[in-house]
Write a structure and sequence with these properties.
Length: 179
Amino acid sequence: MEATELLRHDHRVVEQLFRDYRAAKSAAQRRAVVEILVRELSKHAALEEVLFYPFAARVLADGQVDRHLAGHQPIKALLLDLDRCRAGDPGQDELMERLSSAVARHVHDDENELMPLLCSQADEQALRELGQEIDQGKQRAPTRPHPHAPDEPPALAVAAPVAAIYDRLRDRMQGRPRT
C-alpha cells in the first residue's frame, strides 16, 4: 500500500476509536478505548516523524513540512495526559474532546494539504516503498506518547527505538493490550 493510503487508513481507524469512545456505556469501556487510542496514535505519530515527514521534507520545498510536524506536539501532550488518567477520571472526557479536535485538524491538514502536494511531486514507487517501511515499522514503533523526545532526525533515530522498547516493556508489565 502506498504511504499516504496507509496513513489515511490510520486516520480512519483513529476516527472510529473516537466514535467508539463516545458510544461506550461504562467507564471501563471508555478506558479500554483510550488505551487503544493512545497506542495507535503514538505509533502513528512516531512513524510520521521517523519516516513520512523526513521523506516529505526531502521531496518538497524547505519549510513545507515543519507546520505539520509541529502539530504533533499538542497531540502528544494530550496523549500523555490521557495515558495518565484512570477509568472514571472526571477529566478524561474533556481531554478526549480536545484530542479529537486536535487530531481532526491534523488529519485535515495532512490529507488536504501535505499529502496531495507530496503525491504530485513524489515518485509513485518511492511512495509504495515508504508505505512498506511504515507498515513494517508499526511492529517496533513506540506505543506511548513522548512529547519531550526529539521529533526530528538525527536525535529521533536514536530516541524512537529506545522509547519503543521501554513502552513495550511497560505495556507487558501493566497488562495493556498489544498489537
